[in-house]
Amino acid sequence: MKLASRLDKLPPYLFVEINRRIAELEAKGKEIIDFGIGDPDLPTPSHIIERMCQAAHDPANHRYPETDGLPELRQAIADWYERRFGVNLNPAKEVLPLLGSKEGIGHIALCFIEPGDLALVPDPGYPPFSLGTILAGGGPYFMPLKEENDFLPNFDVIPDGVADRAKLMWLNYPNNPTGATADLDFFGKAVHFAQRHGLAICHDAPYTEVTFDGYKAPSFMQVPDARNVGVEFHSLSKTYHMTGWRIGMVVGNADMVNALFRVKSNLDSGVPQAIQYAAVEALRGSQEHIAEHNAIFQRRRDRLLRVLNQIGLEARMPKATFYVWTKIPPGYTSMDFARKLLDEVGIAVTPGTGYGKQGEGYVRFSLTISDDHLEEGVNRLSAWHGRKR
Ligand SMILES: Cc1ncc(COP(=O)(O)O)c(C=O)c1O
Questions:
Q1: What are the tens digits of pLDDT across the range 115-143?
Q2: What are the tens digits of pLDDT across the range 168-208?
Q3: How many CB atoms lie within 10 A of CB 283?
Q4: N or C: which end of the chain has fewer CB within 10 A?
Q5: What are the residues whose beta carbons fall under 8 Å from the beta carbon of 60, sequence distance 6 or more?
Q6: Is residue 138 within 8 Å of 117, Cβ to Cβ?
């Protein structure tokens, strides 16, 4: 058997070592407090589950779905964009449901990237942006997200030769892993840059509804020319705590949406219909739980930040996302520091380098753990700091 050489181009999975160490410690009876994964601990709201169960009993939903989804779902997505962002979308041409946004993020590279092509990718960034590009035979050109630029890429330093060669640019705000946000002025600059260099933009926006302190995140699609050059990926995962049900969407430029539809219609058969009906219920039903969940994450954010500051670990207060991007003390790599927290404190965090070279010097705490575990985690951090002094 000979595996394709493209697999050799995939970088080693950095979390393997951390996961192995967690398993070893747990086998010895140690309870690890896991600040690592970004997967909401709070359940999917019950009205959504009830709609899914009802739809699951209907034999019409036991058959193959269509790749482009139920018209009701595409309309519900378009209406949600209109209500939430004032963005008017054509549900027949500018909306496509996905099997979770990660699926579409990976597959869209196949629509743009030829062997040897470049995609502009943020560093640190959500790994599928670069991995999709690599699997399509291209290469990422990393745009550093620096703290002094509020974790926004600086388009002015991208060489013209690179920008002209690139086919795609990935952006993601509110941002994983830094928690940074972007305004419409920034998105406008991105559109202008894309028009100047003839490239397409993919904006990934699953965290627009996970916001704090009254902040309301914009959509890339609110920029007047955005739909001429790009699409936005969104998801029900984080807004409605539906990570396990796998449903997201891409909206925007009709040609890009259609290109992704053509790839997907040859690879998958769409989102199970009971889940599509649950998504319609999520988008159209009560939105009250969003504020309730955000209040919980905000309280956890404040609790964690207070302790991090007390023990001398510097972190910016994120206005959105459930991530706290934390500077590590000098003298460690982010991997060493994550290992140290695991071994000495019994808490798991994600090393910044899991998101790219520019993640060196940081670790990411996720707030998607129970209040009890969070409390235990921060108490362990304080006690550890006390012991060191
Ligand atoms: C930036 C970003 N994009 C996309 C996703 C994937 O979301 P989904 O569950 O819709 O595949 C995640 C999940 O962690 C994410 O952090």
A1: 999 999 999 999 999 999 999 999 999 99
A2: 999 999 999 999 999 999 999 999 999 999 999 999 999 99
A3: 23
A4: N
A5: 273
A6: yes
